[in-house]
Automatic annotation (TrEMBL):
Residues 11-225 form the Phospholipase/carboxylesterase/thioesterase domain. SUPFAM superfamilies: alpha/beta-Hydrolases. Its EC number is 3.1.2.22. Homodimer. Acts as an acyl-protein thioesterase. Hydrolyzes fatty acids from S-acylated cysteine residues in proteins such as trimeric G alpha proteins or HRAS. Acts as a palmitoyl thioesterase that catalyzes depalmitoylation of proteins, such as ADRB2, KCNMA1 and SQSTM1. Acts as a negative regulator of autophagy by mediating palmitoylation of SQSTM1, decreasing affinity between SQSTM1 and ATG8 proteins and recruitment of ubiquitinated cargo proteins to autophagosomes. Acts as a lysophospholipase and hydrolyzes lysophosphatidylcholine (lyso-PC). Keywords: Acetylation, Cell membrane, Cytoplasm, Endoplasmic reticulum, Fatty acid metabolism, Hydrolase, Lipid metabolism, Membrane, Nucleus. It comes from Dissostichus eleginoides. It catalyses: a 1-(9Z-octadecenoyl)-2-acyl-sn-glycero-3-phosphocholine + H2O = a 2-acyl-sn-glycero-3-phosphocholine + (9Z)-octadecenoate + H(+); 1-hexadecanoyl-sn-glycero-3-phosphocholine + H2O = sn-glycerol 3-phosphocholine + hexadecanoate + H(+); S-hexadecanoyl-L-cysteinyl-[protein] + H2O = L-cysteinyl-[protein] + hexadecanoate + H(+). Transmembrane segments: none annotated. It comes from the Eukaryota. The keyword Acetylation applies. GO terms for cellular component: endoplasmic reticulum; nuclear membrane; plasma membrane. PANTHER family: ACYL-PROTEIN THIOESTERASE 1 (PTHR10655:SF22), LYSOPHOSPHOLIPASE-RELATED (PTHR10655). This is Acyl-protein thioesterase 1.
């Protein structure tokens, strides 16, 4: 299969049912691919929205005894004090910004592009949205955290997304990325963007995964941030 600049297969795509006037770029979690999320979005698709679910490149992951698996960047630990792969996070973020630029070239303005992700992918989507010069429609951040959080607010000083809407979702029984890590991330985000635009939703009994109720909330958020435009 042809590769792209991320040395990974081309993204899984759910095309719009009619002319695409908006896009969602959604990043999977550690060890996963974009295929499952593409299937999930196909089930809640909105006719004018194109869904792009890229696949992370394969690399050794320190957290998992250096086993090679799809990963956006290396992870040393999943707690607030763990060291972080700063160079890898920034490199991955640049690749996502290039993906956004590609969609802009395809005719979808960046303010009609919503970024999202689950776990490691959600972390990368938050970091990218807060450090890009591209004005985005918002972020869907599922079961995740804000990487390199100590680099903020300086890292987002010139970012145009200070008024963007963020939907952050987290299961209160998550054994992988603790719920407290998610709620602390929401509080940090409120200091970086308009706090009125941050929505943090918890799901009772949900482990480190998604659930139908959460996907309905995600669809509603996307519909609100990426409404149909009158000439469609």
């Amino acid at each position: 299969m042809c590769g792209n600049s991320m040395s990974a297969p081309l993204p899984a795509i759910v095309p719009a049912a009619r002319k695409a006037t908006a896009a969602v770029i959604f990043l999977h979690g550690l060890g996963d691919t974009g295929h499952g999320w593409a299937e999930g979005f196909a089930g809640i698709r909105i006719p004018h929205v194109k869904y792009i679910c890229p696949h992370a490149p394969t690399m050794p992951v320190s957290l998992n005894m250096r086993m090679s698996m799809p990963s956006w960047f290396d992870i040393y630990g999943l707690n607030p004090d763990a060291n972080e792969d700063e160079a890898g996070i920034k490199r991955a973020s640049e690749n996502i910004k290039a993906l956004i630029d590609q969609e802009v070239k395809n005719g979808i303005p960046s303010h009609r592009i919503l970024l999202g992700g689950f776990s490691q992918g959600g972390a990368l989507s938050l970091y990218t949205a807060l450090t890009t010069q591209q004005k985005l429609a918002g972020v869907v951040a599922l079961s995740c955290w804000l990487p390199l959080r100590k680099s903020f607010p300086q890292a987002s000083a010139s970012c145009p997304n200070k008024d963007m809407h963020v939907l952050q979702c987290h299961g209160d029984a998550d054994p992988v990325v603790p719920f407290m890590f998610g709620s602390q991330t929401a509080e940090k985000l409120k200091s970086l963007v308009n706090p009125a635009n941050i929505t943090f939703k918890s799901y009772h009994g949900l482990p480190h995964s998604a659930c139908p109720e959460e996907m309905v909330d995600v669809k509603r958020f996307i519909e609100k941030q990426l409404p149909a435009i009158s000439d469609e």
